[in-house]
Amino acid sequence: QIPDSRRKHRNMKVLPSALTSILLPLTLITSPASAQGPGYDKRYCGTGKQKDYRGTISTTVGGRECQRWDTNSPHSHSRTAANYPNSDLVENYCRNPDNEPSAWCYTSDPAKRWERCDVPYCPYISDEQVRGEIYGNGTASETSADYFEVALHNETLQVIREAEVEYDQNENVPGQTPIEFDNHSDITMTGNTWTAYVLPKAVDIEEDTILEFSFTLTQEPDAGFVAVCLDEDTEEYGDNGVCFVLKSTQGWLKDYVNVPAQTSIGSTSEQRIPIGDMFTGSVNYIAFIQDSDGADRSVGQSTISGIKLSNVEDETLQISMGSHTERSVFSNSYISNNQVSVSNNGVDSQDTKDFWLHVSESGSSIQINGNQWKALPLPDGGYDITSATILEFTLQIDESVDFLAVCLDNNTDVESAEVAGKSECVWLQSSDGWSSSTRKNWKHLTTSFETGVSRRVAIPMGQYRGLGEGEVVNAKYIAFIQDIAFSSKWHQGRSAWSDFRLYEQNLDDLELSLFGVPVSIPNVQLSLEGSNGELQDSRDHILSVDGTSVTASGNNWKYFNLGQTITVTAATMLKFKFSLTEKSEYHFICLLKPGVDYVRDGRDDCFLLAGLSNDSMKQFLDVRPAQRIQDGEVFEFNINVGSYFEGEVAAIGYGLDNDLEITNERTSGQSTWSDVEIYDLPSLMIKMDGVDIAVPNKQISYKSHPEDNRPIRDWLVDIDSTGLEATVKGNAWRAFEFPQPLSIHDLGDFVVSFDFSIAEAGEIHGLCFEENLIYANVDNAASDRDSIRCVTTAYFQDLGDVPDIIPT
């Protein structure tokens, strides 16, 4: 935006006072230093604040002679030609270098520092008078063979060579190469030139006016820039015209509109500039600037071709939106191209307001150039986001940025970090690895984009926002954030987005068996984090749920809330079938504490099932079978999870880790978990005097660990579903603890009866009733038969002198 202090004097086209009765003929300017302009002569008068006066008046209104600009006597000053190179501070002529009300000078009188000069104001003539003198009543093809065309709506303007004038003041240099026209379409600039052309008619710039042309850069200017301007007059600065910089070797030019993604040497770019967004009003001139201020001002060459000015209806962005009630039904909706700056916690300084989203004429795509924080209003009052909402689009990043994000929000403010945890925005690319402190709580993809490669993205926006079953938030805007940190690079960065869809995904409930009861769990997939909250999940990858089966394809760390809290005891088992289609780094399953969404939560509740890598970070318990599962194989796991931890469980997690493909979409790897059951092993049922006692199935080593096969979970005594039968396989010295101790003295003489059978003989088969887990710790077995705790039911070795065992 041009500050008010630099605005031009408007609506003035003038002639010298001595020539008010005639119009000066406007001829081709052969000397760029000429003071003649359209309709007035700067050697005789000035317009507005008379900054354009270039005459030789050198006395003030008080009759004092002016001091030379290149001396500091009698008055010291800083208004020198070096400090004000465009103000023509020569000799002691009256000038206005610093925006005073009119031309002035320092005086030669030591008692009077400076004074206004009596420079005439140029009398007014109309733009039409100027235009008529140049073009007459004929067309360019009738009056001049040398012209270029500007396509204007339904007509073609022919701009003739004779309409050429200097743009701005004193920027051209003697001997420069004239602008060349070719095929009435191509305008080629060589070296330094600031040249404007009077249009055959005034052109109204409206809010929906678009300027289109092709721009070819053959050679960069030296310490300068290339621009095209549309203006009401020939003054560079002001609010009644605008210049668009197409290429700059001086960095960002703050007083112009910098066209983003600038053209490289030897290439041609197609420019489509929404100039109606920058200013509106009537213009009389089109100007071409190739500013080359280096040692050799002939350096630089560029061509502008096929200029077209048109008024177009604001393109609407097409988006296919699904129905909440009939999820297979889609309809095309249209997002109004009413672009609003997105603010950051109430401050809107992030957006470069000179830049605008470019919506294609077809409405199917947008292009974002340079630094932009823009929002568009969603149709029909917004969209209700649920846990099943998906935002889908195709994205291609042609030039990387500091970060790129898309948002669905109910307002146009990116809120503070504490609130941003709601994740209205999703990062798609970041140059600093998602570490920005001001946006660290935004959710983001883990899969990186390759520059120049088009990719389809499906983002579960509801799950990113952490919405549970039945929760709904309304989004009124879709926002696009393409951030460039430094203003000197705001023109950099380009991305193209197309084929938008916003819909509710058909997600089957997950079916599990919890302690013998079938349950259906809402398919709300939440991201499971690594230890210390580090990102592991590729959030744009969705688990495929089909009733009792869950399939992960590509990198996935997800969990489902059970909707209830269950308790794992020593007897609790986790049983499921695991099918491995394509092995990846890790395949695992977790049972999570309430309120926990990460692994390594202080207890051993995540289990490694298969994988290419060893778990060097100790995130999982390795329960892989000795014969590792290979691609195409199915294995049934039955894990005694209660032997690893006891406590509450509120969620189940499924994981396929693929960090081996961190630089691409991480889509390799596939596995399926099915028929998941969480159940408790049956208690051992013992009758005492006709009353059933349920002895919990918490198995403990008896006598000593070396005697017992361990780990116990791999050598469990099998209690059948009735609890009445216990089957022991292999070596086992195993104890079950009564829920309440039984006093032998209270029992008195008692009889233990049971059925016993041997399927395969061991060394000793026996049964004990003990007050502790220490074998043969009697005081005097010979005198106290009550201290004998064990009886053999079968033995196949010499027992020796073991008084505490009663042979049978």
Can you describe what's shown?
The structure is a single chain. By secondary structure, this protein is mainly beta. Helix content is 3%, strand content 38%. It contains five helices and 56 strands. The strands form 14 sheets. Strands 5, 6, 8, 9, 11, 15 and 17 form a seven-stranded mixed sheet that branches. Strands 18, 19, 22, 23, 26, 31 and 34 form a seven-stranded mixed sheet that branches. Strands 35, 36, 38, 39, 41, 45 and 47 form a seven-stranded mixed sheet that branches. Strand 38 and strand 39 (549-553) form a beta hairpin. The longest helix is centred in the first third of the chain and has 9 residues, at 127-135. The radius of gyration is 43 Å and the shape is elongated. The chain starts with 35 loop residues before the first strand and ends with a strand. Mean pLDDT is 83; it is low at 1-39 and 416-421.
List keywords for this structure.
seven-stranded mixed beta sheet; elongated; mainly beta; 808 residues; 3% helix; disordered N terminus
Please give a quick description of this structure.
The chain has about 800 residues and is mostly beta strands.
What is the topological layout?
Blueprint: E1 36-37, E2 40-41, E3 104-106, E4 114-116, H1 127-135, H2 140-143, E5 147-152, E6 155-160, E7 164-166, E8 180-182, E9 186-190, E10 193-205, E11 209-219, E12 224-231, E13 241-248, E14 257-258, E15 268-273, E16 281-292, E17 301-311, E18 317-322, E19 330-335, E20 340-341, E21 343-344, E22 358-359, E23 365-369, E24 372-377, E25 383-385, E26 389-399, E27 403-409, E28 413-414, H3 417-420, E29 425-430, E30 443-444, E31 455-459, H4 461-464, E32 473-475, E33 477-483, E34 494-504, E35 510-514, E36 517-521, E37 526-527, E38 544-546, E39 549-553, E40 556-568, E41 572-582, E42 586-592, E43 606-610, E44 621-622, E45 634-639, E46 647-657, E47 670-680, E48 684-688, E49 691-695, E50 699-701, E51 718-719, E52 726-727, E53 734-736, H5 744-747, E54 764-768, E55 790-795, E56 805-806
Parallel strand pairs: 5-17, 13-14, 18-34, 21-28, 29-30, 35-47, 43-44, 55-56
Antiparallel strand pairs: 1-2, 3-4, 5-6, 7-10, 8-9, 9-17, 10-16, 11-15, 11-17, 12-13, 12-16, 18-19, 20-24, 22-23, 23-34, 24-33, 25-32, 26-31, 26-34, 27-29, 27-33, 35-36, 37-40, 38-39, 39-47, 40-46, 41-45, 41-47, 42-43, 42-46, 48-49, 50-53, 51-52, 54-55
